[in-house]
Amino acid sequence: MSAPTAPLISCTPGVRSGKPCLVGTRITVSDVLEYLASGMGQQDILADFPDIQAAHIQAVLRYAAEREKRLSELTIA
């Protein structure tokens, strides 16, 4: 079993209005999703934002998928 990893996304009051951000940055989950939706590739994002790594982008996608799942469960109930 692998050791637990530190979270890559957090919400901090006073940072980007408390929106979920990549830890240690002011880059929000929605920023990354918008970059991806606009056609930017992962390598483009990593080149433009040297403070983040591929694991951050994977965490954003996982976060969005989990949020979507929770929302859809609420509408089904």
Commentary on this structure:
- Helix content is 51%, strand content 8%.
- It is mainly alpha-helical and 77 residues long.
- It has a single domain, classed as Arc Repressor Mutant, subunit A (Orthogonal Bundle).
- The chain has a two-stranded antiparallel ribbon with strand order 1-2.
- The mean pLDDT is 91.
Keywords:
Arc Repressor Mutant, subunit A; 51% helix; 77 residues; 8% strand; mainly alpha
Number of helices: 3
Instruction: Give the count of structural domains.
Output: 1
Average of pLDDT: 91
**What is the name of the CATH class?**
Mainly Alpha
| Main structural class | mainly alpha
CATH architecture: Orthogonal Bundle
Largest β-sheet summary: 2 strands, antiparallel
Q: Strand sequence of the main sheet, in spatial order?
A: 1-2
CATH superfamily: Winged helix-like DNA-binding domain superfamily/Winged helix DNA-binding domain
Uncertain stretches of 5 or more adjacent residues? none
Amino-to-carboxy terminus distance: 35 Å
